[in-house]
């Protein structure tokens, strides 16, 4: 005969723990597993790495523990919390309509820990936790991730693409990155596709934005970006008018790039990995087709590009200079084509400082130019050929095939010239 404790006895003993088949009530947040881990190098990748992640709901006491082996993790390092609230009225869901009882907002919780003073050329392991969620338990050993700081020099591999989005092709692209085991990945803008074709218009019934795409994006990339720094540039789809007048409020919450051009220079930064100096720019500032951010820094970015390229070229530790942003300077893609604003305003600086390589996305295809100087190709360079940027000019690559290439193709046609150009907007 089975007997059951009385309700009074249960209350005295602490409640449901005594009920057969019921688990001990979890502490608040105990089941909210951290997700969407993504890394970023600081300006000095030998000693600086930022670890960023999300939690699915509000928790307290988020932290990171790290060490040079999973068995020697140090004490918790408190995380910075950057909540980001998006009104559901802004959003057009792809999967289903919102039920009547749905909340009016979707709040995302982004956590960040900046690690400095790391040892160069060293592998670090880390785990993430919060109050009620201890990552150092036997059933969570799979949650230990690892990254490696830069060394003093030597050959290395990096990968780059833009226009990744979310989906099975995007997962495949990430897997290819993981298999190549690069020192870092350059994400050339148009990241999650939470935003469709932004042009600065206010929220309206045809305004397509779904903040939850970012949840999918970070969850999708977690297996790769948790171990390989994912250095992000902002594309035209990262212009989110809903998150601040500059459209950068969402990016500020989600990412912790070096952003060292000036205080608050979101997505605009420089760093050096071994003998390569890198710049990330916000090409929304020179985009005529979507002029929402046109000239939004009032010349500040342009002056910084000139100054920083000059610093790199004067630095004996820098042998190559690579510049990353979203809009294609030269492209035959017929979805967006080439961006005349970038040709007019930035290409002269790339000529002036002998930039070796410009990497962009935006058009969903792969193209590599011969070296270009003063707007003209200087000589034919076969695959694998060498280019001397100061004399030959800059090589421009469009690599916008992170996923959307196969789902919404640009359907490029061979053309004899770098033909498609976008005209500057009419004076406002
Ligand atoms: Fe774009």
From TrEMBL:
Using the UniProt record, name the top-level EC class of this enzyme in a single word: hydrolase
Q: Which domain of life is it from?
A: Bacteria
| Residues annotated as domain Purple acid phosphatase N-terminal | 34-144
Amino acid composition bias (Low complexity), ranges on this chain: 415-428
Q: Where is this region: Disordered?
A: 397-428
- EC no. given is 3.1.-.-
**Know the name of this protein?**
Metallophosphoesterase family protein
Write down the species. Amycolatopsis mongoliensis
């Amino acid at each position: 005969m089975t007997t059951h404790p009385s309700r009074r006895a249960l209350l005295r003993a602490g409640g449901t723990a005594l009920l057969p088949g019921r688990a001990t009530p979890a502490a608040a947040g105990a089941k909210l597993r951290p997700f969407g881990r993504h890394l970023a190098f600081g300006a000095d990748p030998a000693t600086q790495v930022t670890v960023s992640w999300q939690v699915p709901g509000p928790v307290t006491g988020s932290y990171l523990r790290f060490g040079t082996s999973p068995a020697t993790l140090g004490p918790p390092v408190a995380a910075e919390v950057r909540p980001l609230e998006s009104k559901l009225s802004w959003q057009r869901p792809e999967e289903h309509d919102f039920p009547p009882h749905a909340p009016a907002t979707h709040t995302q919780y982004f956590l960040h820990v900046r690690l400095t003073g790391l040892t160069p050329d060293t592998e670090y392991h880390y785990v993430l936790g919060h109050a009620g969620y201890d990552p150092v338990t036997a059933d969570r050993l799979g949650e230990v991730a690892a990254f490696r700081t830069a060394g003093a020099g030597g050959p290395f591999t990096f990968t780059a693409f833009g226009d990744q989005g979310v989906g099975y092709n995007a997962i495949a692209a990430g897997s290819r990155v993981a298999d190549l085991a690069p020192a870092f990945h350059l994400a050339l803008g148009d990241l999650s596709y939470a935003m469709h074709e932004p042009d600065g218009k206010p929220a309206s019934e045809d305004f397509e934005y779904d903040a939850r795409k970012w949840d999918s994006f970070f969850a999708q990339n977690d297996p790769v970006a948790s171990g390989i720094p994912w250095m992000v540039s902002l594309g035209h789809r990262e212009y989110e008018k809903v998150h601040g007048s500059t459209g950068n409020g969402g990016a500020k919450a989600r990412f912790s790039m070096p952003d060292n051009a000036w205080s608050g220079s979101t997505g605009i930064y420089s760093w050096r990995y071994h003998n390569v100096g890198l710049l990330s720019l916000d090409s929304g500032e020179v985009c005529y087709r979507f002029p929402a951010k046109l000239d939004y820094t009032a010349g500040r970015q342009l002056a910084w590009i000139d100054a920083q390229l000059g610093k790199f070229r004067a630095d004996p530790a820098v042998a190559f200079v690579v510049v990353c942003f979203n809009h294609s300077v030269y492209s035959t893609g017929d979805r967006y084509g080439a961006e005349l604003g970038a040709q007019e305003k930035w290409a002269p600086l790339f000529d002036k400082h002998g930039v070796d390589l410009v990497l962009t996305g935006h058009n969903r295809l792969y193209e590599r130019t011969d070296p270009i100087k003063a707007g003209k190709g200087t000589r034919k360079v076969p695959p694998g050929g060498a280019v001397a940027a100061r004399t030959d000019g800059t090589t421009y690559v469009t690599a916008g095939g992170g996923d959307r290439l196969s789902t919404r193709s640009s359907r490029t046609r061979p053309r004899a010239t770098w033909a498609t150009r976008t005209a500057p907007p009419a004076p406002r």
